[in-house]
Amino acid sequence: MESYLTRRDAHRNMARFYALEIAPDLFGGAVLVRHWGRIGTGGQARRQWFAAAAEARAEAARWRALKERRGYAAEGAPA
Known about the structure:
Blueprint: E1 2-9, E2 14-24, E3 30-38, E4 44-50, H1 53-69, E5 73-74
Antiparallel strand pairs: 1-2, 1-5, 2-3, 3-4
Pfam families: WGR
Protein name: WGR domain-containing protein, predicted DNA-binding domain in MolR
GO molecular function, one term: DNA binding
């Protein structure tokens, strides 16, 4: 699962991104990688490990819903 969300507001000079990615780890679990920052920069990343991929998907869905409530939208989608 991958999600790439953006939030732009020219009046506030805001151009942000938020990316979510789930990948398998070496021990049979899953890792959720959250990556965020200003568009055009390297940004920051945080990794969170889970015993099962279903747990990682649920956490990713929670973060995506939170960001969408704050005005982020999928790249190319109307804001």
